[in-house]
Amino acid sequence: MKELFGSPGRKSGLILRIGQCVSAAASIGVMASASGFSTTTAFCYLIASMGLQVLWSFGLMCLDIHALRFNKDLHTNIIVSLFVVGDWVTATLSLAAACSSAGVMMLFIRDTNICNEDLNLSCDMFQISIAFAFASWFLLAISSYIMFWLVASI
Length: 154
Known about the structure:
Subcellular location: Cell membrane
Main location: membrane
Family: Belongs to the Casparian strip membrane proteins (CASP) family.
InterPro entries: CASP_dom, CASPL-5
Membrane topology: Multi-pass membrane protein
Number of strands: 0
Largest sheet: none
Radius of gyration: 17 Å
């Protein structure tokens, strides 16, 4: 089996998982601290999706740490197949949440001017949270791509 950058059980894979977990957690933290996020379904979906992303990335991060610490091989058919399915599912959900939230922000800013009129909405914080969500998705897309090639090389 090939040793690719970001594959499970390698330091590069651990760095990708840490980046995914931190950016998803930052997205949750910024969105949850913004006032008025609960009035929009897309923002609530973003928090739920990023919560799943944090759990998935944290679990795989712990598995990578265990594999690095005890020199275990994570390149078995079952484990890599599980990683592929989990990465693709969470990547799809994360992209959908980030895109829907970005669409709502475009509606708020350009079409309705709600951000200029309603002082109870923290539109700048919404945008920062969405940027963190896209960063998390980008790192997850890299992991998903690597897992796809690992499963193809088995």
